[in-house]
Design brief:
Strands 4-3-5-2-6-1-7-8-9 form a nine-stranded mixed beta sheet, sandwiched between helices. It has 628 residues and is of the alpha/beta class. It has 23 helices and nine strands. α11 packs across α22.
Length: 628
């Protein structure tokens, strides 16, 4: 059977684990907050409302710091554990888990010192909670969160924003649907001006989660009482109001025992003419039992949703851990294996881009199908083979003695000059494909999810790929330019052997070949034409035809050379040199390559801690036998 102790103890253990992890709600957490899902009792009140006295009365010990101004500057998670009669009372702090305090004056000092360790000696506040567990036969099983007192004015040494900062912190606790609000209001002030009730009404307008506590009933003016409030006529809540009588300042100064103070409180209500009929529902002891029972019922009701959150979060965190990758092994062999696997993952994606499995490889074909033909068409052959330039080149090639039949040297110079223009498009094709390959490398690195963990290794692979591509480009340029040079080195003779036969055929006025023996005058005119303007035009036309033939050849052979020297090599041996270099590295150097992004390492660490927390919380929940 589930006991109240096991239920509240369960939440206590999960709360402590959350705090160790840094999950204490009220902030911007990357992951879902388990703390936010846990039922808790948040103690809210204005300064001097008697909030600290109520808590000390519930505990039965004088242990909270006192003073003027803001005394509580960090949330105090107070976990009460009931022990067997006759056992010694003691306290433990989460941040000093190996130390037990039996002197509660030392507990007070440690609360103050631990507050100062985070906030300094200033009067600033911090959302980081202090966890204090008290084990005593004089308490009930209960967990309370003491929050900084609400204030209206900043005092000396505090920023003007302190009023808003405190309200925002308190609000972050009480606005949770699983939060039970313990609103402390002094009886000697108008309930309409109560800071605690004002905030509780904003976050819990129906009063379903709010318990009202009226303090300082014994300090009200004679002839007045707080029955209108306590009996729910002034401000109605779903739960009953509870009145308490705390120690007076004189009692505090005399260090009156808290157990004695409890007895005086019982006597006050039992003998009070105003509250005697409510005596069994008044006092700090009744308040503690009421809160404990309600907290237990809320925990019992919330267990299914907490379990659902835990299981969902475990699934999400395990998925995140798979995405982030597991920690890297420390031995050199495993590290080398990891590096090679990462390189293969990148290489696989790079090949998919080239082969069409991913977009990008088609841009290489675009170079050959669009850019290269366009560059060939733009070559300045019209200028180079103009009548003026042909005459100039042929004349210079003849030297002091003009050619007799055909200006062969002039032809060769014109052809070599024309073919030289092909070097530009050849080199441009190589550079264009080189650029595409570099882009595909960059894109492939970005798409290799496994490499995102290792910026150093990614940079090394990128550098190695670029070096390899540079080597491939140099070799490709040599090959493509060699194709151009080969066309210049040996001209196609058959093309020119057909030219004299065609030239010797006279052309009739109708544009058709005539009879060579039919008109001697026409034949003579045709022969004379060899040395006229028409002769040079014919030379330019012949060279243009030959260059066009070469252009068609290079348009087909340049892509072959580029693909062979660059694309094929990139597919088969892009990282070969890198593999050789990696194999020569020592273990420390391999570890440096696998040096992860610090932000990613921190994220994995937080994921792992949170996963451990949620699994521990699941085990805690499973260990309790629920009564349906």
């Amino acid at each position: 059977m589930t006991t109240m102790e096991s239920l509240i103890g369960l939440v206590n253990r999960i709360q402590r684990a959350c705090t160790v992890l840094g999950d204490y709600g009220g902030g911007d957490n990357t992951f879902s907050s388990l703390w936010e899902a846990l039922p808790s009792v948040a103690v809210v009140g204005g300064q001097s409302s008697g909030k600290s006295s109520v808590l000390e009365s519930i505990v039965g010990r004088d242990f909270l710091p006192r003073g003027s101004g803001i005394v509580t500057r960090r949330p105090l998670v107070l976990q009460l554990h009931k022990t067997d009669e006759g056992t010694q009372e003691y306290a433990e702090f989460l941040h000093l888990s190996k130390r037990r305090y039996t002197d509660f004056a030392a507990v007070r000092k440690e609360i103050q010192d631990e507050t100062d360790r985070v906030t300094g000696k200033s009067k600033m506040i911090s959302p980081v909670p202090i966890h204090l567990s008290i084990y005593s036969p004089n308490v009930v099983n209960l967990t309370l969160i003491d929050l900084p007192g609400l204030t209206k004015v900043a005092v000396e040494g505090q920023p003007e924003s302190i009023v808003e900062d405190i309200e925002n912190m308190v609000r972050s606790y009480v606005e949770k649907p699983n939060s039970i609000i313990l609103a402390i209001s002094p009886a000697n002030q108008d309930i309409a001006t109560s800071d605690a009730i004002k905030l509780a009404r904003e976050v819990d307008p129906q009063g379903e989660r709010t318990f009202g506590v009226m303090t300082k009933l014994d300090l009200m003016d004679k002839g007045t009482n707080a029955l209108d409030v306590i009996e729910g006529r002034s401000y109605r809540l779903q739960h009953p109001w509870v009145g308490v009588v705390n120690r007076s300042q004189a009692d505090i100064n005399k260090n009156t025992d808290m157990i004695v103070a409890r007895r005086k409180e019982r006597e006050y209500f039992a003998t009070s003419p105003d509250y005697g009929h409510l005596a069994n529902r008044m006092g700090s002891e009744y308040l503690a039992k009421l809160l404990s029972q309600h907290l237990e019922s809320v925990i019992r009701a919330r267990i299914p949703s907490i379990t659902s959150l835990i299981n969902k979060s475990i699934d999400e965190l395990e998925s995140e851990m798979d995405h982030l990758g597991r920690p890297i092994a420390v031995d050199a062999g495993a590290q080398l294996y990891t590096i090679l696997e990462l390189c293969r993952a990148f290489d696989r994606i790079f090949k998919e881009h080239l082969d069409g499995g991913r977009p990008g490889g088609d841009r290489i074909y675009g170079v050959f199908d669009n850019q290269l033909p366009a560059a060939l068409r733009k070559l300045p052959f019209d200028r180079h083979l103009s009548l003026q330039n042909v005459r100039k080149v042929v004349s210079e090639a003849d030297g002091y003695q003009p050619h007799l039949i055909a200006p062969e040297q002039g032809y060769r110079r014109l052809i070599e000059g024309s073919l030289n223009y092909f070097r530009g498009p050849a080199e441009a094709s190589v550079d264009a494909v080189h650029f595409v390959l570099k882009e595909l490398v960059r894109k492939s690195l970005a798409e290799t999810q496994e490499l995102r963990r290792f910026p150093t290794l990614t940079a090394e692979i990128a550098g190695a790929c670029n070096e390899a591509l540079e080597r491939f480009r140099d070799e490709s340029k040599k090959s493509t330019l060699r194709l151009v040079d080969m066309e210049s080195s040996y001209l196609t003779v058959e093309f020119f052997r057909r030219l004299p036969q065609e030239v010797e055929k006279p052309i009739t006025p109708g544009g058709k070949p005539g009879n060579p023996g039919g008109n001697p005058a026409a034949n003579a005119a045709a022969a004379m034409d060899r040395y006229s303007e028409g002769h040079f035009r014919r030379i330019g036309s012949n060279v243009s035809s030959y260059v066009g033939m070469v252009s068609d050849t290079l348009r087909n052979t340049i892509p072959k050379a580029v693909v062979h020297c660059q694309v094929r090599e990139a597919k088969t041996s892009l990282l070969n040199h890198f593999y050789i270099q990696i194999g020569k590295r020592e273990g420390k150097q391999l570890g440096q390559l696998l040096d992860e992004d610090p932000a990613l390492m921190e994220r994995r660490l937080q994921c792992a801690k949170r996963l451990e927390l949620y699994k521990a919380a699941r085990d805690e929940v499973d260990s309790v036998s629920w009564v349906r």
